[in-house]
## 1
Amino acid sequence: MIKLKSPREIALMREAGRVVAKALDQVRRLAVPGACTAEMDEAVAAIFREHDAIPLFRGYPNSTKGKPPFPANICASVNEAVVHGIPNRRPLKEGDVVSVDTGCKINGWCGDAAVTLAIGEVRPEIQKLLDVTSQTLDLSIRAMARCRTWSEVASLMEKYVKSQGMYVVEKFVGHGIGQDMHEEPQVPNFVSKALRKNDIRLEPGIVLAIEPMVALGTKNVATLDDHWTVVTKDRRASAHFEHTVAMTPEGPRVLTFLDD
Ligand code: MG
């Protein structure tokens, strides 16, 4: 069941979204050679504390029974890591890319967003990966204004990534979001079988975390033995961008932007 949100509830989600955006803006300043992802995690924890925001990632249960919960406030996934990387003290190097995903809850409502950042100068191929992934997110939000169902949007996302010679990672998808970070429906970045059978109507009040993950060489992924970090099978780079987006009678509204 998809829980539609009222304008008042969407306004509350915007508060959480603004703090997530503020946290990622702080992370952006730390994305320089020699910095480390643990520092990014500490900066985000401080911002969440300052706003009385509950971090949503810390303590998140592992999908494999008996394996450790997620230990940090951000997922920090470097280079071949796609998602769910654990922050650490390894210095970032010129030419690396780091995907940072974070979420928080304020007054009972959630926000969730991600960005992939270049560390110094990156190779043109890597810059193109970042551009294509961020453009895929942008085009999906724009398309929500005129598409009636999510499969129409997902098809555009998939086609754009393919046209650029890259791959949509299919193992992980976006999600509904509200009082819980992960609500129904699942929001794939491609036209999945499930979507064909049971499409999502883009009606006012639906709030989705849209999060395309794109890889340079393959859509196939593997999980490392820390039981969290997901990497590309070919160990080539991947990127991830995410916004929490509400459908309103006036069209799609991004909730995880820094300024209105
Ligand atoms: Mg998400």
## 2
Amino acid sequence: MTDYSMLARQLEALLDTRDWLTNLSQTAAFIFHNVPELNWAGFYLHRQPQTLILGPFQGQPACNPIPFDQGVCGTAALSGETQRVEDVHAFPGHIACDAASRSELVVPLLVGDRMIGVLDLDSPLPGRFTADDQTGIEALCEVLIRTTSLTDIPGDNRD
Ligand code: SME
């Protein structure tokens, strides 16, 4: 089982600047290499109205842009709630960037009432993400939100 409290401490030590681009890049790489059985880990950012724009990530080149009314990422952005999808083929509107992906976890990044973007994790294994993974990954996002100036991310009339 992944030791998320150790990962949270390691991530906090890694994020030694408040710069958003540096910290999103470090976080994507850290999660991709420390959480087993992922084929993609990265960020989509709310930089245009009702639209997610691809940010720092690890894995195959990915779909861009993603409107809020599409995909697991759009659902997380619109609802402000984590989406834990055991079988992406059963999720209406799932966007298949990589046919190998079978399960997905998407955590919205909220700073106050501002939706900054989402962290998206994909796995080639069905049902890869448990409730414990969700809690652990949400805790890593809280470290990122606390340590990083996410409201500095440039955007175009976000709503
Ligand atoms: N599957 C996502 C799209 C992003 S990729 O997985 C990297 C979705 O349905 O929103």
## 3
Amino acid sequence: MTTDASASPAARPPSLPVKPRIFSGIQPTGRPHLGNDLGAIRNYVALQDKAATEGREAIYCVVDYHALTHVHDPELMGRQILEMAAALIALGLDPKRCTLFVQSDRPEVTELAWLFNTVTPVGWLMRTPTYKEKRLNQPEDVNTGLLTYPVLQAADIVLYKAALVPIGRDQAPHLELSREIVRAFNARYGETFPEPQAVYTEAPTVLGTDGSKKMSKSIGNTIEILGEPDLIRKQVMSMVTDTQRIMRSDPGRPEVCNVCQMHRHFGADYQEIWEGERTARTGCVDTKKLLAERIIAHYAGAREAYKELTADPKRLRAILDEGAERIRPIAEATMAEVRERMGLR
Ligand code: TRP
């Protein structure tokens, strides 16, 4: 029990934005693939548009600090940051209606991550599924950043007091941890941060061209939507379909065929396409060819915009610098509040 309520940090009202802000981060993996777009970027764009009509702020971040846990080539890092930023704009993020910035351009987040380290039990981090996975995937490089990755992610979100986080299902454990870290901070130092909430996309997991694993650059099973049309054709034609459909005359099973599933996203007539497969009126090759041409057409505008943006890195840099500047006051205000609550000067 506190005797003087006005001196208790818990008694102070939180300085929260009136309308919860939206925040998400994406790793600088270079030119994004279909899985990145269907699983995350499309949702960023939809939320940006919705946020604009609601008078809400949407903030999107290329998380280069996070990428340092596995990318150690400076030249590659610099290139992939700009490629991802260019792609986000090309695919529909509008720097006038949302804030797009590079994580390391707002370094306050590293200070907040350190402060959050001191409220986060090691056990929570050791139990995180992605940490266990990474330890197996890169046993020669189990750096501390892999362990504290979710702490930095929590700091990313709440440095801007954001509460709505568009992410794929695979990020659910990280978001749960963000919520726990925020609760731990609020419990110790008083209500300071909103608890972030996940906003899941409608296309949770996109399988790769192998039809069995999640589409991922590291596996090499991607469809590179911003690549040249011939590359897209090659990647789509390599897709594994219904493995039980051996003869052209065998009926297909659209519900288990990855090509058929992808058609959902590229035309309202996908059920007709499925019917063609079921009745063996069409073969897998026809359905793949059609998918390739639809993907090429769908991303034609984005492909052009991406080319222009990457050809002018100065302009791109200026857009990103402006994004980081725009949110500087929010980051500075949060850090002043946090330092005071923790008794730092
Ligand atoms: N961990 C996320 C991923 O790999 C990226 C990320 C970093 C993020 N910081 C974030 C996502 C904050 C949402 C909010 O995809």
